[in-house]
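Risk mitigation, structural track. In case the binding assays with manganese (II) ion fail to produce interpretable data, a predicted complex structure has been prepared as a fallback.
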Amino acid sequence: MNSTALQVHPEVAEALAAGRAVVALESTIISHGMPYPQNEEMALEVEGIVRAGGAVPATIAVIDGQCQIGLSPEHLHHLATVGGVVKATTRDLPWLVASGFTGATTVAATMKLAAMAGIRVFATGGIGGVHRGAAFSMDISADLTEMAATPVAVVSAGVKSILDIRLTLERLETLGVPVVVNGSDDFPSFFSRTSGLPAPRRLDGPHEIARMLHAAWQQLGLGCGVSIANPIPAEFEVPADEISAVIDQALADLDTEGITGQDVTPFLLKRVMERTEGRSLAANLALVRNNAATAAAIAVEYAKLCA
Ligand code: PSU
Ligand code: MN
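Fallback model:
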């Protein structure tokens, strides 16, 4: 797609034109999902993992009103260090472009921009979903809406238990979004390989997953996204009882401190990270690396099927 607001990095543009594998990466995880300096190290490392897997990385953000598909190390440094970068979901994109501001894109906004650029595979840590208590707050992430509307496959470690995982899966079913777990019969919950819920569908490995993406978009012509849950490697799992008390306390703090709207998820992520003495950060880094490697392998297989 041609867009005056879209700046596709030359390396990314070249790979797309040649039909080679490209993996999109989000930037909210850099600005709002992890502390400095781990966020910057992670952003650079993950790009390296995608390259090592034979794909071209395209980290996405809005920089001074330009939607950048592929960022320079200077841009990554800026997003990792400057406080107050706007957390941008899909609805924020026109406002950012019109006002020339900088925004770190969520899964939803990253999917939207990736699709505009022609990128089909995207790696992240965890996706947004239905919040606990959503029956009253109506707080449901725009990530789910975007998955229904935009043909990008999102590789995540499942849904963090700051959310209502069961209702998130219900919502994805209603929205018609295929949900597959890579190599497991259990739906993972970010820090854990299990959630107490079964995998809606299971596929084993990048080739099988790429075949499903090809079926969705090339054979059936569907316009939806696909959620690929990739369980955290077993050696990095954090035991559920270690994390659940911390999450319950963070959720209680939300009410006490009156946090609402777009600030809810960053607040919960920060609290959980602070209160687990870095154990959750180590797990978070491990699963993001794992997702980047898996996404690269899927993108490579998918590019072969489309050739
Ligand atoms: N979950 C995580 N880490 C994250 C996010 C979610 O474990 O960094 C970020 C992602 O960018 C996701 C966003 O798209 O939070 C969802 O925010 P909200 O719930 O406000 O839609
Ligand atoms: Mn919300």
